[in-house]
Write a structure and sequence with these properties.
Distance between the termini: 35 Å
Number of domains: 1
Order of helices and strands: EHEHEHEHEHHEHEE
Number of helices: 7
Low-confidence stretches: none
CATH superfamily: NAD(P)-binding Rossmann-like Domain
CATH class: Alpha Beta
Number of strands: 8
Length: about 230
C-alpha cells in the first residue's frame, strides 16, 4: 500500500488529488490547517486526517510523527498548500506568501525526509506554477505575461528552485514541480477562470505515481517538461 501525504488537501486540487489517489489504492493522509474542515474532508473521502499547518514547525513535526508511528514510512509527499497573496504588495503580505508557498515546502520536506528514505519508491511532488517561470512571464504569447501577481509568482519560482535543489541533494528521492493548469478553486475565484479541479488534479496524480525510473528535478505540465 502506497502511503501518501497531501498538504492543503481539504479542498480544491488537493482534495481531488486525494480522491484520485485513493481510487488507485493509496493510503492517503489529508493534511489541513483547520481540524474541522480537514476531518470533514477526510471522512468524505475515506482518507486519514492529520492537522498540518505548513507555517508552523510543531504542527508539521507532529503530523509527520503521527504518520511515522502509524505507517513507518512515507512513499509520496504532495506539497499542495498555497496562498495567492493578491492583496497589497508589502512586507507582511510577502512574508505570509513566502512562508506558505516556499518556506512551508522546506518545513514539510525536512520533517518528511526520514520517512521518505524508508520507502522503496519515494516521490515528492510540488504543486508549483508556470507563473514562476522566467520563460513564461516574459513570453507575450503566454497568459502568465500579464498576470498581476508578483508575490505569488516569486514564491512559485522559489518553490521550483527548491524542487531542483532537493532533487540534487537527495538523489534517492524523486522531486518534481508541476504546473497543474488553472483550476476553478477558491484561490482563482476572484479571476473567474479555471477548469474543473479534478482535471488539474489528474496532472498532479500523474507525477505522484511515477515509477522508479521517472524524471526528477523538473517543472512539468500535462504536456511534458517546461522551461523556466
Amino acid at each position: 500500500m502506497t502511503v501518501t501525504l497531501i498538504t492543503g488537501a481539504n479542498k480544491g486540487i488537493g482534495y481531488e488529488t486525494a480522491k484520485q489517489l485513493l481510487e488507485l489504492g493509496h493510503t492517503v493522509y489529508v493534511g489541513a490547517r483547520d481540524p474541522e474542515r480537514g476531518e470533514k474532508a477526510a471522512a468524505a473521502l475515506g482518507a486519514r486526517f492529520v492537522q498540518l499547518d505548513v507555517t508552523d514547525d510543531p504542527s508539521v513535526n507532529s503530523a509527520l510523527a503521527t504518520i511515522g508511528s502509524a505507517e513507518g514510512r512515507l512513499d509520496v509527499l504532495v506539497h499542495n498548500a498555497g496562498v495567492l497573496g493578491n492583496g497589497a504588495t508589502d512586507g507582511p503580505t510577502a512574508l505570509r506568501v513566502f512562508d506558505t508557498n516556499a518556506v512551508g515546502i522546506v518545513r514539510v520536506t525536512e520533517a518528511a525526509l526520514p520517512l521518505l528514505r524508508r520507502s522503496s519508491n519515494p516521490n515528492v511532488v510540488t504543486v508549483s506554477s508556470s507563473a514562476g517561470s522566467f520563460w513564461a512571464v516574459n513570453n507575450p504569447r503566454r497568459p502568465e505575461f500579464g498576470l498581476p501577481l508578483a508575490l505569488y509568482s516569486a514564491s512559485k519560482a522559489a518553490a521550483t528552485m527548491l524542487t531542483v535543489q532537493y532533487a540534487k541533494s537527495q538523489p534517492g528521492i524523486r522531486f518534481n514541480a508541476v504546473e497543474p493548469g488553472t483550476a476553478a478553486t477558491d484561490m482563482t475565484a476572484a479571476f473567474g477562470v479555471g477548469r474543473r479541479p479534478e482535471e488539474s488534479a489528474a496532472v498532479v496524480v500523474r507525477l505522484a505515481t511515477l515509477g522508479a525510473d521517472g524524471p526528477t528535478g523538473t517543472l512539468r505540465d500535462e504536456n511534458g517538461e517546461l522551461p523556466w
